Amino acid sequence: MTRDDILAQLKEIITLNFEIPEDLVTQDAEFRAHLGMDSLDLVDLTFFIKHAFGIEEGVHAYKSLKTVGDVLEFVIERSQ
User: Fold this and answer.
1) Superfamily of domain 3-79 in the CATH hierarchy
2) Domain ranges (residues) in the chain
3) What are the two backbone dihedrals, phi and then psi, of residue 79, each rounded to the nearest 5 degrees?
4) Cα 31 → chain centroid
5) Is 66 exposed, middle or buried (0-12, 13-18, 19+ CB in 10 A)?
6) How far apart are CA 23 and CA 20, in angstroms?
7) Fewest C-beta in 10 Å: which of 14, 45, 48, 60?
């Protein structure tokens, strides 16, 4: 899976499950500040990431991820 494939899948997860317009989902977009996601949304996002990419990390591993780009790098690192 390429970087662009992973980014496209992340965008799809965010737009479909959280009803956020696709044009707002950029690598620099912060989940809370730009996308309006709250802590429950972020917990749900970890669930979707685990299932979409097969990443079995505890919730604590996601705490430092603030932007879509952070999650992209997180997924890439764990997919190799």
Assistant:
1) ACP-like (1.10.1200.10)
2) 3-79
3) -90, -10
4) 9
5) middle
6) 9
7) 60
Show the 3-state SS of the chain: CCHHHHHHHHHHHHHHHHCCCHHHCCCCCECCCCCCCCHHHHHHHHHHHHHHHCCCCCHHHHCCCCEHHHHHHHHHHHHC
Instruction: For the chain, 80 residues long, give each residue's pLDDT as a single digit of tens.
Output: 899 999 999 999 999 999 999 999 999 999 999 999 999 999 999 999 999 999 988 888 999 999 999 999 999 999 87
Structure tokens of 5? Answer: 């494939």
